[in-house]
């Protein structure tokens, strides 16, 4: 009986999904894309100072080993033979920066994290010259702010008429991307400086650290990354698909410490320890690219939106590198094989999505759990003219207005917490529409539908609202683990593995839940235009950075400063006079 079951399952593929808050290992059937088993381990984030976000690379690596072992145990309990696992893919949080010693295998500093920042949605990354940016404390959740001064000094060296950083990388100069984090480490951590001088240092994003460690570490570990992760470092030329000498010189990064850049689907090396020793690691994708592949967005103009703390929208632009006129990022979507073409994407982000639900729970206390918001919104079915703009630390794409702050407007005596809950969900949808409108303008391919994933997609009211506000269908796969699935697909399809076909006719049909617009187009446009009016009302609240930065200096107030200085002078004078004979 057991033998028959094993035979039916056929080849399996595992996927490491390493995120900002947890690590998971999932195993899929390569013929049906069915998820068979998984295990998850929470990861700690460290905040050594306000605005600093770090993680322990060794804890991350240990969590991967633990997840693999526990998942294999669970498969054994299901009478599934783990020898059927033919390949492993890696999906990871992007931009987070690790430097380690290649002789000892020890990290030289904690991983400098970019927890969930939307990248270009850091107003500091894209505001016009001379504009103010939000106070540091306002956006510490989204940014590791230690590199802000590094960014400011570097930006002065970019000619106004030749932003070669953006033209080569598709990225704005920002605290978010790896190059400035690495520059900070080189400037401030003596252990890193010394290791570079002695040719002991290796740099990588989380995927590089994991693959090097899993394939042997100090005993022949493979130091590599894939094109999607490399494209988020600000050191990688997305046209030539190589580390760029001019960019490395600009940031002062020695090229000898950089990993080899490979495709997203090829055998990088073999597992050297644990239950899956000898299994090839053959897929690697940054998390948002992995979700794009897992959603099977292989055609030009197909887009997916991942709903989490923020939202990440990626639109496949095909083999064409489209540069945005509306503040979106140009990034590498995937390259599924050494000899396969590279595909590009436009990426836009909503800074505050799930975060607004947590704000209602933790700050206002109008809900006790995140799930409760759907119940409240369902009770009224409308915001009753109430609009919520969650510009907690400025407005992001497409406005780039750091002076904005969050507002709830359109209140009447009739408004209650249910209407505010409904308005909060609408806010996520309106922000998504603004990004999709920008994508449509940039690539000229109107979306026929939006594919969605992420934790918030379990909220049916939210999904229906999204369809109504976009006025296109919203499509949600019944199997929500699209990020891990994308990594598994890349691994199983690799040359030398060949257990997962990516040909359109061979891709497993995925059961989808479809939400169609249920209001007319005119009503959709009226609600959207009223939202835009609310957005305009949110602007201009912060006139100077110091007004919110909480500068402790008593001399921020000139009258108070003058009073204290003059008082001290008078006191000294009095004591001097009293000491005279």
Automatic annotation (TrEMBL):
Gene Ontology biological process terms in this record: glycerol catabolic process; glycerol-3-phosphate biosynthetic process; triglyceride metabolic process
Key word Ligase present: no
Positions of the Carbohydrate kinase FGGY C-terminal domain: 304-494
Domain of life: Eukaryota
Coiled coil: none
Annotated compartments: Cytoplasm; Mitochondrion outer membrane
Domain Carbohydrate kinase FGGY N-terminal: 13-112, 141-294
Keywords: ATP-binding, Cytoplasm, Glycerol metabolism, Kinase, Membrane, Mitochondrion, Mitochondrion outer membrane, Nucleotide-binding, Transferase
EC number(s) from the headed UniProt entry: 2.7.1.30
Homology family: Belongs to the FGGY kinase family.
Protein name as it appears in the record: glycerol kinase
């Amino acid at each position: 009986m057991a033998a028959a079951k094993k035979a039916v399952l056929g080849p399996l593929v595992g996927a490491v999904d390493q995120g900002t808050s947890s690590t998971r290992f999932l195993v899929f059937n390569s013929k049906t894309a069915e998820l068979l088993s998984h295990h998850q381990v929470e990861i700690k984030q460290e905040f050594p100072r306000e605005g600093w976000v770090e993680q322990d690379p060794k804890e991350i690596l240990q969590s991967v080993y633990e997840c693999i072992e526990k998942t294999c145990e669970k498969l054994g309990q299901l009478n599934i033979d783990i020898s059927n696992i033919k390949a492993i893919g890696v999906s990871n949080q992007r931009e987070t920066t690790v430097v380690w010693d290649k002789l000892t295998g020890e990290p030289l500093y904690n991983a400098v994290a970019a927890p969930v920042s939307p990248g270009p949605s850091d107003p500091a990354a894209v505001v016009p010259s001379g504009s103010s940016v939000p106070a540091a404390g306002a956006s510490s959740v989204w940014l590791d702010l230690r590199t802000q001064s590094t960014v400011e000094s570097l930006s002065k060296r970019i000619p106004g008429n030749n932003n070669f950083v953006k033209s080569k990388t598709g990225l704005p100069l920002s605290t978010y991307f790896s190059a400035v984090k690495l520059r900070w480490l080189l400037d401030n951590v003596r252990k890193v400086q010394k290791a570079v001088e002695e040719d002991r240092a290796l740099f990588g994003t989380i995927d590089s650290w994991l693959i090097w460690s899993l394939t042997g570490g100090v005993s022949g570990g493979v130091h590599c990354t894939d094109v999607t992760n490399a494209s988020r470092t600000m050191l990688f030329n997305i046209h030539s698909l190589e580390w760029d000498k001019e960019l490395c010189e600009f940031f002062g990064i020695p090229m000898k410490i950089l990993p080899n850049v490979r495709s997203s689907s090829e055998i990088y090396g073999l597992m050297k320890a644990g239950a899956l020793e000898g299994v090839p690691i053959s897929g690697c994708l940054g998390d948002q690219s992995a979700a794009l592949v897992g959603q099977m967005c292989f055609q030009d103009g197909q887009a997916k939106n991942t709903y989490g703390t923020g939202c990440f929208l990626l639109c496949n632009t095909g083999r064409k590198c489209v540069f945005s006129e509306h503040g979106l990022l140009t990034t590498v979507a995937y390259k599924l094989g050494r000899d396969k073409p590279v595909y590009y994407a436009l990426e836009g982000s909503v800074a505050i999505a799930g975060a607004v639900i947590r704000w209602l729970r933790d700050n206002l206390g109008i809900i006790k759990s995140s799930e409760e918001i759907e119940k409240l919104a369902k009770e009224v079915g409308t915001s009753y003219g109430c609009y919520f703009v969650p510009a907690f630390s400025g407005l992001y794409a497409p406005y780039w207005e750091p002076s904005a702050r969050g507002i709830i407007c359109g209140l009447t005596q009739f408004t209650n917490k249910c209407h505010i809950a409904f308005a909060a969900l609408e806010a996520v949808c309106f922000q998504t529409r603004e990004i999709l409108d920008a994508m449509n303008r940039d690539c000229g391919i109107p979306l026929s539908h939006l594919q969605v994933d992420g934790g918030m997609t379990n909220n049916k009211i939210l999904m229906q609202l999204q369809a109504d506000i976009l006025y296109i269908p919203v499509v949600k796969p019944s199997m929500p683990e699209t990020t891990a699935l994308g990594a598994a697909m890349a691994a199983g399809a690799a040359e030398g593995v060949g257990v997962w076909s990516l040909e359109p006719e061979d891709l497993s049909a995925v059961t989808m839940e479809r939400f169609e617009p249920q209001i007319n187009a005119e009503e959709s446009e009226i609600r959207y235009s009223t939202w835009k009016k609310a957005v305009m009302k949110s602007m201009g609240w912060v006139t100077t950075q110091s007004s919110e930065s909480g500068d402790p200096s008593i001399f921020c107030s000139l009258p108070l400063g003058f009073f204290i200085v003059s008082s001290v002078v008078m006191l000294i004078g009095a004591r001097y006079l009293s000491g005279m004979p």
